[in-house]
């Protein structure tokens, strides 16, 4: 089933990106562009992430510190 019609992203693809560590709609958007055009799929992506698709979600729910991703502008440049 398609989650994002604008970019043809399926539910399975969102779950795969979540399994690879994308735990927020913004991280999913960075991985596959879903949610970056019309935005109508963002709530569906949030719902998928809230249903255990993110392997680290249980750590966040238990009060473990979440690993924050640095904005691209703050990453050190490659030599």
TrEMBL record:
InterPro entries with a match to the protein in the record: BFD-associated_ferredoxin, BFD-like_2Fe2S-bd_dom, BFD-like_2Fe2S-bd_dom_sf
Keywords: 2Fe-2S, Electron transport, Iron, Iron-sulfur, Metal-binding, Transport
Positions of the BFD-like [2Fe-2S]-binding domain: 2-50
MF GO annotations: 2 iron, 2 sulfur cluster binding; metal ion binding
The organism's place on the tree of life at top rank: Bacteria
Family: Belongs to the Bfd family.
Protein name, as recorded: Bacterioferritin-associated ferredoxin
